[in-house]
Write a structure and sequence with these properties.
263 residues, Metallo-beta-lactamase, Chain A, 33% helix, 6-stranded mixed sheet
């Protein structure tokens, strides 16, 4: 197995490089991806998702970025946002997010906003579902540069949790259908490797969610309408590491709410 390179930036596209946080685990895969976005001739950078409050990681991010133009959050979960305050203190850059609780020294972010800095332009898409405050950032600065930063909405491997009750499956499916429209844009994920085709990645996620919904409906038919979420997890997610069954149970609760509301 190739040794993971923490703290060292890795160029992914002409406009994006990644610094991997040293927080690997069942939910974070190889660790949180902190993204640095800049035009090739820019001396500053946009930082997306500082990651955990790890001074070594944040110092590496600040060094790699040079001048930090702004700090953006895809969502407020701690493995993405925990280091935002420290990076703000290190660099003076504002922290912008959808959730006001995570903003520091700057404006919020909402659907339709455009963030222009470091020679690049990001369009803000509201993509709720994993969490209510999940955003994606669509990046383009010319032919061949299209990419989208998805946080935990699409991961580099496996699937993500719909973190019920804050997360909502109906909203998540709508967000995936929207991301599917991006076609061959590169997916710059919150965890795991980048993906070459947003349309294919979103389509695969949609198919997986439909399969899980069918499995949950079948489990309800076998176990009874009053079956507990835990019993459904044991039936439907038997192929998943038990260490993350707690997260699978959140997704099951989201699936049950979806089935109850929409059939």
């Amino acid at each position: 197995m190739t040794e993971l390179a923490y703290e060292t930036p890795r160029a992914v596209t002409p406009l994006a490089s990644v610094v991997l946080a040293a927080n690997p685990g069942p939910m974070t895969l190889t660790g949180t991806n902190t993204w640095l976005l800049r035009a090739p001739d820019s001396t500053d950078a946009i930082v997306v998702d500082p990651g955990p409050d790890d001074v070594t990681h944040l110092s590496a991010v600040a060094t790699a970025a040079g001048q930090v133009a702004t700090i953006l959050l895809t969502h407020g979960h701690d493995d993405h946002s925990g280091g935002a305050r420290r990076l703000h203190e290190l660099t003076g850059a504002a922290v912008r997010s959808l959730d006001p609780l995570h903003r520091l020294g700057g404006e919020g972010l909402v659907e339709g906003d455009v963030v222009a800095a470091a020679g690049v332009e990001l369009r803000v898409w509201a993509t709720p579902g994993h969490s209510s405050d999940s955003l994606s950032f669509v990046l383009s600065a010319g032919p061949g540069t299209a990419a989208v930063l998805t946080g935990d909405t699409i991961l580099g491997q496996g699937t993500t949790v719909v973190a019920y009750p804050d997360g909502d499956l109906g909203e998540y499916l709508a967000s995936l259908r929207r991301l599917e429209e991006l076609g061959d844009a590169t997916v710059l994920t919150g965890h795991g490797p980048e993906l070459p085709h947003a349309g294919s990645a979103a389509a695969a996620y949609l198919a997986h969610r439909q399969q899980r919904l069918e499995q949950v409906r079948a489990a309800l038919a076998d176990l009874g309408a009053d079956a507990s979420p835990r019993a459904i997890v044991e039936r439907v997610y038997a192929d998943v590491d038990e260490a993350v069954w707690w997260a699978a149970e959140l997704s099951v609760r989201a699936q049950l709410a979806y089935i109850r509301d929409r059939g």
